[in-house]
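// run 5 | inverse folding | seed 20
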């Protein structure tokens, strides 16, 4: 039970709370800059309450961001040439994967798996089985990192829009735009890398669990 709680905590903190709080911070900063609000002076006697509300809203907004990015991924990114780089899992033997799937009771006939695309249809099931085994719990860390990078790519993308909206000084705007856009791009690249790495390890460990052991 304790290990489950630890996993949920890691997943929530990395994937939802951090991007959500950063997002609210960026939006709050943009509003303060746009309307010249003396926020710190106005609410200095309620710092504890403000932080508590910020953290709670950050978690909520983190979930919303994740849902937005998941929908955006399915509609525009998943099948794009930029994202479809499966070199990390090409080396897996799909015959061994088929054998493991049969032993796990997920398929009846090995011939159902003739390619890596066939194997990918069972990725959700393989991941569910693997993450419940303490021997392979590191795959859960990859899932947390994948979620974090995906959501942070969104946050910094919105940050660039916020900078355009609230910054009037040209030089400062250029610096912030460059910072936000580069950060968004780097998180997106990292998201793609971890996305396929998680799937590669899931397949390898799934085969290891049912075939090699």
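// decoded
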């Amino acid at each position: 039970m304790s290990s489950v709680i630890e996993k949920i905590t890691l997943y929530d903190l990395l994937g939802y709370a951090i991007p959500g709080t950063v997002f609210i911070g960026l939006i709050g900063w943009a509003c303060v800059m746009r309307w010249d609000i003396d926020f710190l002076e106005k609410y200095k006697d309620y710092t504890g309450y403000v932080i508590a509300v910020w953290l709670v809203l950050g978690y909520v907004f983190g979930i919303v961001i994740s849902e937005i990015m998941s929908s955006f991924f399915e509609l525009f990114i998943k099948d794009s040439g930029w994202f479809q780089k499966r070199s990390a899992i090409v080396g897996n033997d799909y015959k061994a994967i088929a054998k493991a799937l049969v032993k796990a009771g997920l398929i009846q006939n090995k011939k159902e798996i003739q390619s890596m695309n066939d194997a990918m249809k069972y990725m959700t099931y393989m991941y569910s089985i693997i993450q419940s085994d303490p021997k392979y719990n590191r795959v859960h860390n990859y899932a947390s990192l994948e979620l974090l990078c995906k959501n942070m790519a969104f946050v910094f993308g919105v940050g660039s829009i916020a900078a355009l909206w609230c910054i009037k000084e040209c030089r400062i705007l250029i610096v912030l735009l460059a910072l936000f856009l580069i950060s968004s791009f780097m998180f997106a690249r990292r998201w793609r890398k971890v996305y396929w790495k998680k799937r590669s390890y899931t397949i390898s460990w799934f085969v290891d669990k049912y075939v090699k052991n």
